[in-house]
Amino acid sequence: MGSILSIVANLASFVCIHQYIQLPDLSPFFLFRDMASSGPTSGKKSLNTVTLLFKLPYYTQWGQSLLISGSEPALGSWNVKQGLSLSPVHQDNELFWCGTVSVAAGFTSEYKYYVVDDNKNVLRWEAGEKRKIVLPEGVQDGDVIEIRDWWQDASEALFLRSAFKNVIFNDTEGVKKELQSVSLNKSLDAEDIVVQFVISCPRLVPGSTVVVTGSNPQLGRWQAQDGLKLSYVGDSLWKANCVLRNQAGNPSLELGPNRKADIDLSSPKQSRYVVLSDGALRDAPWRGAGVAVPVFSVRSDEDLGVGEFLDLKLLVDWAVNSGFHLVQLLPINDTSVHGMWWDSYPYSSLSVFALHPLYLRVQALSDAIPADVKEEIQQAKKHLDKKDVDYEASLSTKLSIARKIFNLEKDKVLNSSSFKLFLSENEEWLKPYAAFCFLRDFFETSDHSQWGRFSQFSKEKLEKLISECTLHHDVIRFHYYVQYHLYMQLSEAAAYARKKKVILKGDLPIGVDRNSVDTWVYPTLFRMNTATGAPPDYFDKNGQNWGFPTYNWEEMSKDNYGWWRARLTQMAKYFTAYRIDHILGFFRIWELPDHAATGLVGKFRPSIPLSQEELLSEGLWDFNRMSRPYIRQEILEDKFGSFWTVIAANFLNEYQKHCYEFKEDCNTEKKIIAKLKKSPEKSLWVEKEDSIRRGLFDLLQNIVLIRDPEEPTKFYPRFNLEDTSNFRDLDEHSKNVLRRLYYDYYFARQENLWHQNALKTLPVLLNSSDMLACGEDLGLIPACVHPVCAPSCHDCSTLRAWWEEDEGRRNRFYKTVVGSDEEPPSRCTPEVVHFIVQQHFDAPPMWAIFPLQDLLALKDKYTTRPAPEETINDPTNPKHYWRFRVHVTLESLLEDKDIQATIKDLVTSSGRSFP
């Protein structure tokens, strides 16, 4: 009789969600057959050698194969090239990969499956934690143990990430009770099959029972109350043994779609033991909601002009009352590079490890603050309570007060056991950070190339800088002190969030400032003659230039990306989820020369360039004509009018009749900016400097091919090359060839390269911690990047502004999405907001995350401020002042039960989980 088994749970639910993250696997469950004529396994001889037979269903492309690499020599000792190669076997309509290996008694091992090419180069590997194999009890010398696995994708252990395991479902231990035994307590007949069921159930609620039910009598004949009860064995795993008797026909065990294990009890070739690993239990998707707001934007009764880490406790309370499981923040690392408001840009890190002193609550530094300092704090509170953040005033005030308290209690704090533990656990980054801050202030610049003998970092120089015998040692210790208290305050807020079942989600910036601790200490990890950015897109037709140096991935790979792994380890001290800023950068980055000011004339790194031979074969040969700025007299006259002669005289040389090139002192964008500012002739153009700068940039960018500065025979098509007069003046054949090569470069030839590049770096990040990872993917997105739900974010207009700034778009939305032929309101009313927010709550993604501004717009009383003022960032402006503050305190929001109830109703009606 064929036996179909199904796993069900009482008052429990399980899920299988595809996420763009790498997640741990489930332990296998065991299915084995005892064929000993003597019955029970007791009294058997000790085993010597057994054969492991691996079997995995998997479809590959031509030229690809599978292998196993594991922790033991028999499986290659984690050297993939020495792993166990598998061979393809067709069985019915499926393709299986199989391989055997002999192992000794007591064999245990961890292992993973890899897809490789003909040279055993890794193309990809399965997601999740390492698999584990432990031989079943009772195996005998010469036995064959068949291990039937299923390729692990990223979804299988989603709920074992810390965001779920340690936060949302952290009370499920209450349903698991003590560890229980699952040993088999009965004798076996020769032809019995013993099935050991194992299922991961991280989402159980108190009072739940886990059972297996199926058509077999031992499994209750589909009656859950008569099914096989499982026992909790730890790590969210439940197990039970079941003995199935040989009956007519061949039993077929099916667990979920397309997962079968055919066992022929009468076949002499049947393996004595079968280990069946079938992934995770399927069920309806879990869905939750969250709120996003920068720390600096929140307002409380206690802050000094800017949000603080301890304010997050109030924000968590509001999130819980509103039905949210997640609070998302912008980066919180120190950005004190310039010593002015430019440092408000949270993605330009001075250190990827140090926290920003801006978020320190000085009142919490000590229990014995003198009365005069307390009065200073109260006065500062009133003075800094402004509509927007006064970055410089808030930071300088906090540091001034912190120094006064430090001078009073430094010996007490710095000699405490908790501080000494903090220092010992963080000295690898903390000591260089403190030394950097001292040198930055001493030399009055963070440009470490200007620091003389200290411009080159060494551990010997560092030890001298932080030595106790120096006159500035208290300066060094002050930086330790501030970072220690920031750590304590953020840790307190993070622990509070976990207790309230709220995920605290951090942000991992894609870059670091070129004048940072990290580029000083680890210069070989960065390409300092380049800058990162984004190609032209919806936000900016000239692209974006963030100024960060690009990464030297080749150098980073030498220690398996240790710098990245350290960053994630540090973040995991506070966060249980994180956003990967510009995840496209791990596939490819838009790289610009360091002399560029805009983001237009760049290239992707890595990418396959156009070779000189390729261009010649297509009939393109005049490389100077296409790669140098194309400047003709008629172009100058058209762009600058009668003023063209002044432009030509000051910025250009005529190298042949009516043909011009830039002079050496202004042949880059940054040189043009400098010359416009400092030239003795600047009085000629001072009133129209901006338009002249744009015109000169247009001339400089008037190319169709970018020549690689490191390999001159390689070229890259300029973005939007058809917009240039350089292109328009070419012959038709050249235009057609360039159009085709342009499309191929940007949309076809790089896809596999970029996909493989991400596989080298992203898994290392994702496996460096057990945080839940989410990718931010705005911009020009290649097809190899997976498509995420929010009405707006910090880089675009808020929901209100989006509605009010574009009448045509508003009309189209009202007609096609709302389904109304009426005239839409010009103002984004709470009714409009409710409709759009409800759409996002109802959407299928696991997470719906809303900027706080968009949620407050559900009530009229929170929309008195002009909508454009609520936008956090303007991506087109590299010197944007990040200073938005919510105009209502968190304490007031907590008192407003109406808006909390409105939001919670939206959460519950959409079927999303809430605390």
Automatic annotation (TrEMBL):
Reactions this protein catalyses: Transfers a segment of a (1->4)-alpha-D-glucan to a new position in an acceptor, which may be glucose or a (1->4)-alpha-D-glucan
Enzyme Commission designation: 2.4.1.25
Stated family: Belongs to the disproportionating enzyme family.
Domain CBM20, first and last residues per copy: 44-152, 187-288
UniProt main location, coarse: cytoplasm
Compartments where located: Cytoplasm
SMART domains: CBM_2
Pfam families xrefs: CBM_20 (PF00686), Glyco_hydro_77 (PF02446)
GO molecular function: 4-alpha-glucanotransferase activity
PANTHER family the record matches: 4-ALPHA-GLUCANOTRANSFERASE, PTHR32518
Keywords: Carbohydrate metabolism, Cytoplasm, Glycosyltransferase, Transferase
GO cellular component, one term: cytoplasm
Protein name: 4-alpha-glucanotransferase
